[in-house]
Amino acid sequence: MSKNLVVIPTYNERENIRDIITVARVISPSFDVLVVDDGSPDGTAEIVKEEKEKAPERIFLIEREGKLGLGTAYITGFKWALDQGYDYICEMDADFSHDPNDLIRLLEACENGADVAIGSRYVTGVNVVNWPMGRVLMSYFASFYVRLITGMPFRDSTAGFKCYNKRVFDKLDLDKIHFIGYAFQIEMKFNAWKHGFNIVEVPIIFTDRTKGVSKMSKGIFKEAIFGVLQMKIKSLFKKYEPIA
User: Fold this and answer.
1) 197 C-beta neighbours (distance < 10 Å), count
2) In 127-154, which positions are buried (b, 16+ CB within 10 angstroms) versus exposed (e)?
3) Distance (Å, rounded) from C-alpha 12 to C-alpha 6?
4) Distance of alpha carbon 222 from alpha carbon 244, whole angstroms
5) For the segment 179-224, what is each residue's pLDDT rounded down to a tens digit?
6) How many CA within 13 A on the CB side of residue 157?
7) What span, in angstroms and rounded, lies between the C-alpha atoms of 131 and 26?
8) What is the pTM of this model?
9) How far is residue 113 from each of residues 77, 91, 118, 169, 195, measured CA to CA in Å?
């Protein structure tokens, strides 16, 4: 059987973290859970420690000393997963906007030949629940903008719900991933696509959080808009080694 892990970055998610760990741990096929907490002052890490006592071989925690960014949290988690020998590594939000049960379908896509499986909100229309129309439009057109600039064919290029075959990280140098906010999600897809990995979109329904506070900010949005242009320009002068 493959070793599967889901990486969950957290900052002030005490209202969600216990439930998300419970659901992710009991689905079948099974996933181990790694929480990367950025020094949450609300005690998120303490709740993870309580859950870890119930299943120390399945639940893991990395505590960082401050709010260092979504991208660096995932990179920290990916490196840990590779060191531990996991075959498939997923990423997921802690707030139930991503349904943990959809991890099964993302994993199945990778087991059936995909190198990266994207949980896509837009591949079969607009599958978003409880977002105000302004945010839906902003997200949808952000994905359109990324496709236009980069040439990537994916309908949900900003998605943060994904599963990776570990072999992707043999080509992607995680130390050279530059973005730390949500643009990190775009950069990872872009690099995997440029190297020629097989990337598929799996339709999901995205549901806005009902507990806790969103971490979206104007700075994060700005990084995505201007960072995509910068990334595309730099790619014109970079050689991407194709996969074997």
Assistant:
1) 20
2) ebeebeeeeeeebbebbebbeebbebeb
3) 19
4) 36
5) 887 789 999 999 999 999 999 999 999 998 666 566 555 566 677 7
6) 25
7) 28
8) 0.92
9) 23, 19, 13, 16, 16
Q: In three state form, how does the secondary structure of the chain look?
A: CCCEEEEEEECCCCCCHHHHHHHHHHCCCCCEEEEEECCCCCCHHHHHHHHHHHCCCCEEEEECCCCCCHHHHHHHHHHHHHHCCCCEEEECCCCCCCCHHHHHHHHHHHHCCCCEEEEECCCCCCCEECCCHHHHHHHHHHHHHHHHHHCCCCCCCCCCCEEEECCHHHHCCHHHCCCCCCHHHHHHHHHHHHCCCCEEEEECCEECCCCCCCCCCHHHHHHHHHHHHHHHHHHCCCCCCCCC
Both tokens assigned to 5: 């892990």
- What's the CA gap between 201 and 141, in Å, rounded? 18
